[in-house]
Amino acid sequence: MRLFTIGDLHLSFGVPDKPMDIFGGWKDYQKLLEQNWLERIAPEDTVVLAGDFSWGMTLAQAEADFAFVQNLPGQKILLKGNHDYWWASKKKMDDFFTAHGFNTLHILHNNHYAFGQYGICGTRGWVSMQGEAADAKILAREVQRLQVSIQSAVDAGLEPIVFLHYPPIYGTSMNYEILEVLHKYQIRKCYYGHVHGKSGHNHAFQGMYEGTEMRMISSDYLQFVPEQIF
């Protein structure tokens, strides 16, 4: 039983293909992802999908993408990305998965999932835009969701591992509100996606920050190979 993660699958089986190739390195990426997944992941493994899962605008439009991942080995835990317009209430998503037999798909939203001694926690996150009231409100909500998720794992006696869509640090931009939560709970591992293209990857922070190891797991950065954590 192993734990993997990858972000930004940007699947589009139910809608017209999106031009991900503008970033370079996305040719036949859905086939490449499937091949790499089948080579590495077993039915007893778990994969955390860190946002931007599908280009579908609704659950119905994303159904083909859910079916694609459902048919791959392992349990999958999904959190929200900025392009996941299909995202709805957790109950509505859980009900949709149940109705369609997607029993390997699980939503991470104000909760956690146990994996051995660890608690899989996370939320979308947000950018840090100083002086922007609307962004401040969204960020405050994401900070709260992250705290609720982490605290639920702590209350269960588990060590939290955090998964975000947005990077807490990018170039010279520091999302201090998110970083404060990571510091408060002494999070040792944090994984994030969202960043694409070589120029973007070059600005992404990876390494230790105040005791937290940060890793970028955008699918194009990983060359569509899910990264093993444990």
Automatic annotation (TrEMBL):
<dbReference type="InterPro" id="IPR051158">
    <property type="entry name" value="Metallophosphoesterase_sf"/>
</dbReference>
<protein>
    <submittedName>
        <fullName>Ser/Thr phosphatase family protein</fullName>
    </submittedName>
</protein>
<dbReference type="InterPro" id="IPR014578">
    <property type="entry name" value="Pesterase_CT488"/>
</dbReference>
<feature type="domain" description="Calcineurin-like phosphoesterase">
    <location>
        <begin position="1"/>
        <end position="197"/>
    </location>
</feature>
<dbReference type="InterPro" id="IPR004843">
    <property type="entry name" value="Calcineurin-like_PHP"/>
</dbReference>
<dbReference type="GO" id="GO:0016787">
    <property type="term" value="F:hydrolase activity"/>
</dbReference>
<dbReference type="Pfam" id="PF00149">
    <property type="entry name" value="Metallophos"/>
</dbReference>
<dbReference type="InterPro" id="IPR029052">
    <property type="entry name" value="Metallo-depent_PP-like"/>
</dbReference>
